[in-house]
Amino acid sequence: MSSRKIRFRVQLVCLSMVAIAYVIYYVFPGFRSYREKESVPETGEESVQATKATKAVFTKETISAYEPSYYEKYLHDPRIIKDPVIGGLESGYIKQILILENKIPADAPYLTKEKAIEICNGLTDLPTKEEKWENAVMTAFDEVAYAPDFKGGSGMTRIIYFTDETHSKVIMIAGFCVYYKDYDLPDAPLEILFDPFGES
User: Fold this and answer.
1) Distance between CA 160 and CA 142 in Å, rounded?
2) Is this prediction's pTM over 0.85?
3) Contact between 91 and 72 (Cβ < 8 Å)
């Protein structure tokens, strides 16, 4: 057998191994979660913090950790009702998913505009990194609403709470602002409810 054929077969085997590793890592998130769990320290406060960071378990008490891979199984779930105004992927409808998984009650309360303003006025010492800032505000809102109705977006993350069962009015966390929009009034602009870094 010529050295050229041997080299070709070796390259083919190497490419196959890379492809198999890719499939295992990206197509089977359970394997990835297992590997991440293995790397968590065994004892101490560092272990507790690492576990909280890698497990995105949404409850009434903590919803700041969000791991999209956990929700990918709901990407085309017919039980998820997508809002015609919000759109997005089924896996972004966090509240519906948590209700399906019996992690929060089906009658979880809505976040009203007045309550959102009250919560925002009481927020202090917020992080200055955008994602952490958004998660801190979201965690405060979830003390009332248990979970956002939607979290997702392309380019910019939108964290959305409906104010009632009509879904026509929304509170949205995006960037370093909290907005309010009434879709019953299509010409009404986004109203800024909270902009801590804006001009006074």
Assistant:
1) 11
2) no
3) yes
